[in-house]
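Office hours follow-up: a student asked to see two folded examples consecutively, so here they are.
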Amino acid sequence: MPRVGDITRKTKETDLHVRVDLDGRGEGQVKTGIGFFDHMLEALARHALIDLTVEAHGDLHVDGHHTVEDTGIVLGLAVAEALGDRTGIRRYADSIVPLDEALVRCVVDVSGRPHLTYQIEILKWQMLGEYDVYLTPEFFRALVLNAGLTVHLDLIRGDNPHHIVEAAFKAFARSLDAATVLDPRVTGVPSTKGTL
């Protein structure tokens, strides 16, 4: 069975369509109107080895907040739909990713219990093109809550905001891939409760 999630969501602030194939090849087709954010979502697709389509139209004349947060919501819903009952997955994974001086760790549990611990402090506020670096935790919080994931993201070291944000997206991507991959040794759901 294909593990695909396809979600459309329209509000007064955003109009979004996201399609995720968890067993893809890392191909991303992303249009949010925020160049750096597109780059991060394409990196997420590439390093999670998922095929990802994102079409977002948001109130960018206000700022990028609604577009970034709502993309997280819809991506999370699509991931949850693609996972289904989570049968056969590995469930847990961690990854440490460097980008020059930046080093970020991500730990994922595909638990069905949404929780985000985000320990990435960027001391130097910066716009990366039209992307506000402080929207990064908003994106991950929305994604995690709607996908039913437990995620811990920690900055080990780093000072360049671009490098830190990109390393965070890539560390999450690699952990998501490893946690959601189907393992032929796993029968049923990886939980003693029998459900996730």
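And the second, which I mentioned at the end of office hours:
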Amino acid sequence: MKVLAIFILGMILSIDPKKVSKINSLKSEAKKAFLSGDFNTAIEKYKYLKDSLGVSEEEVAMNLANSYFRTNDTTSAFTTYQPLSISNDAKIKSWANQQLGVMANRQGKFEEALNYFKQAMKAEPENEQARFNYEIVKKKLEEQKKQQQQNKDQNKDNKDKKDDQKKDQKDKKDQQNKDQQNKDQKDKQDKKDQENKDKQDQKKDQQNKDQKDKEQKDKEQKEKEQQQKEQEKKDQQNKDEKNKPDPSLSEKLKEMKMSEEKAKMILEAMKNQEVQYLQQNKRKATKPRDRGKPDW
């Protein structure tokens, strides 16, 4: 007990009365500036208290954080509220978490804001403002999730629709390509068929021509053969006519009671005698003439 008393006495003696007076004066000036809405002055004085005079009171840090919050210096406010969110003082802890939740809500970080408001209510269940903010953010979060799900469904529908459109376009393009290929193949086949038909027609025409030429040749040959036969027949008739006995001679032979065969034999014998006579005359004509004798 004696030691504690000595320690307290030492602390009292070590405190500079002028510094304490200055601290209290700055606190009063900072509070007055904050209440009048001069938050920049309040920030300047609270920072001087904290950084220059070494004041580590949580109330000073809270007022500095609130001044940052009022000037929309979110970064400085967040870094100042953050250590206070784990304070042993329930009111300070609840207020710091509530303000962190408000900033998170403004940034659209609803789940983070909801968690800060939960911590604020745990630290101080009587904090109705934190509870009200919690309900508001919870509703926003539900709406956000609902909207996100709707957007997700819409995006899925749009994606499915686009995929269907792409598939339809692809199917249409594939069908067009297939139709074009079929058309090309059909045109190619038609062309080939037409060429084959033309060739067959040409071949048929040639065959018809050859057949006509053959028929013409056969006709000409038959006509020629017919003419030859007629000529032969005519020649034979002429020959038969020539060899036919003279009717007057036949009648004479009948008067002489001589057959034609016998008459032919006589004629033949006469021809042979005439030939012998001519041959003898020829031999006589070829003997050399005697120059000493007269021509007669």
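Two things to take away from it. The radius of gyration is 75 Å. Confidence is low (pLDDT under 50) at residues 1-14.
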